[in-house]
Design goal:
The protein has 304 residues and is mostly beta strands. The chain has helices at 4-11, 49-52, 129-134, 284-295; strands at residues 20-25, 30-32, 36-42, 55-66, 75-81, 84-92, 95-99, 104-107, 112-116, 121-127, 136-146, 157-161, 168-170, 175-181, 183-184, 187-188, 197-204, 209-213, 219-226, 228-231, 234-237, 240-244, 250-255, 259-266, 274-276, 279-281. The strands form six sheets. The protein has a seven-stranded antiparallel beta sheet, with no helix packed on it. A seven-stranded antiparallel beta sheet has the order 2-3-4-11-6-9-12. Strands 5-10-7-8 form a four-stranded antiparallel beta sheet. β15 and β16 form a beta hairpin. The radius of gyration is 20 Å and the shape is globular. The chain starts with a helix and ends in a 9-residue tail after the last helix. The relative contact order is 0.19.
C-alpha cells in the first residue's frame, strides 16, 4: 500500500526512488548446444512474464574457459525462431552467427548482436573458428525480447552493434555506463527497438553511485554479474537479479565493491503470451501455425 507521501508526490508528478520488489537467483547451469553453458533467470516461477515484459528469456553464461578444439564446432546448429528478437551481449570470446536471411557476422568482446526473428528465420551460432582453435574464455548473455502482435510478422532483420558503436558515459563517482538501447544522460543507444527499451551495461567502482530517471510504468531489473550492489535497503551479489517495483520514477544504485551489472527496462507489452520452444506468440493456434510453417518451408531454406 502506498504511503501518503508517495500518493502526494504522485499527484505532483514525482514518485521518487523505486523500491526493490524482490531479489532472485538463476537456475542451475545447463548447456545450450555444446558451446554455451548458461543459467536461466527467466522464465521462472518467481518472475511472472508480466513483471519482466517486454523481456521473455535471460540466459547468462559467466566466464568459462574452453580448451582449444582441434576439429569440429562448438555451438548451436540451425534452428528456427518466430515472434521475438534475440539480443546477445559479449564481454569475452567470439561467436560466429549466420541466418537464412543472408546475415552473418562475428560477435566479439564488447559487441552486441540484435536479431529480429519476426515472421520467421533459421540461424546458427558457433564459437568463431579462430577462438575455437585457440581456446580461451567465453562470457556472454542472451536475451529474448518480445514483439507486439502487430510486429510478429515483421521481416527478419539483423543489427550488428560493435563495441565502437556503443556510447560510453563516465560516472562522476567512479564507473562507466555503456548505452546499448534507450537513453542515459546525453547518450542514446544504437539499437533500434519496436517498443521503448533501456539496456545499460554498467561498471561501478567501489562506492560509486548511479542514479537516473525512468518512467514508473516501465518494468525494471538488473543482474549483478560481479561484485555487490545496493538498491534501496537491499543488496544484490554476484549472480543475483534485482526486480524493481513500479512505484517510483528514479533508479538508484550504489556499489559496495567494484561491480558490473546489466540493467534492463521497458514498457510492458500487455498482450497474451505463449512461448513454446523457439516461438513466442499470442496464442496456441499461432504456435501450431509456426510449427506448420517450419515443416512446410515457409521459414525459407536452410543453407547447406
Amino acid at each position: 500500500m502506498q504511503n501518503h507521501a508517495t500518493v502526494r508526490d504522485a499527484h505532483q508528478g514525482k514518485l521518487g526512488v523505486r523500491s526493490v520488489e524482490s531479489i532472485h537467483k538463476s537456475t542451475t547451469f545447463h548447456w545450450v548446444g555444446n558451446g554455451f553453458q548458461v543459467s536461466t533467470y527467466f522464465p521462472s516461477r518467481g518472475l511472472p512474464p508480466e513483471r519482466v515484459s517486454p523481456f521473455v528469456l535471460m540466459d547468462y553464461g559467466p566466464p568459462k574457459e574452453f580448451e582449444p578444439l582441434a576439429h569440429g564446432k562448438r555451438g548451436v546448429g540451425w534452428h528456427p525462431h518466430r515472434g521475438f528478437e534475440t539480443v546477445t551481449l559479449a564481454w569475452e570470446g567470439a561467436v560466429a552467427h549466420r541466418d537464412n536471411a543472408g546475415h552473418a557476422g562475428v560477435i566479439g568482446p564488447g559487441d552486441v548482436q540484435w536479431m529480429t526473428a519476426g515472421r520467421g528465420i533459421f540461424h546458427e551460432e558457433y564459437h568463431e573458428d579462430g577462438f575455437a582453435r585457440g581456446g580461451g574464455r567465453m562470457h556472454m548473455m542472451q536475451l529474448w525480447v518480445n514483439l507486439p502482435s502487430k510486429d510478429k510478422v515483421a521481416a527478419p532483420a539483423y543489427q550488428p552493434i560493435t563495441s565502437a558503436d556503443i556510447p560510453r558515459v563516465r560516472l562522476p563517482d567512479g564507473g562507466e555506463v555503456r548505452v546499448i538501447a534507450g537513453a542515459f544522460a546525453e547518450a542514446r543507444g544504437p539499437a533500434h527497438t519496436f517498443t521503448p527499451i533501456t539496456m545499460l551495461d554498467v561498471r561501478l567502482e567501489q562506492a560509486g553511485k548511479l542514479s537516473f530517471a525512468l518512467p514508473s510504468t516501465h518494468n525494471a531489473l538488473a543482474v549483478v554479474t560481479r561484485g555487490r550492489v545496493r538498491a534501496g535497503e537491499e543488496v544484490a551479489r554476484t549472480g543475483e537479479l534485482i526486480l524493481f517495483a513500479n512505484d517510483g520514477d528514479r533508479i538508484d544504485f550504489g556499489a559496495e565493491e567494484d561491480s558490473h551489472m546489466v540493467f534492463l527496462a521497458g514498457q510492458p507489452i500487455e498482450e497474451p503470451i505463449v512461448q513454446y520452444g523457439p516461438f513466442v506468440m499470442n496464442s496456441i493456434d499461432e504456435i501450431r501455425q509456426a510449427i506448420t510453417d517450419v515443416e512446410t518451408g515457409k521459414f525459407g531454406p536452410v543453407p547447406a
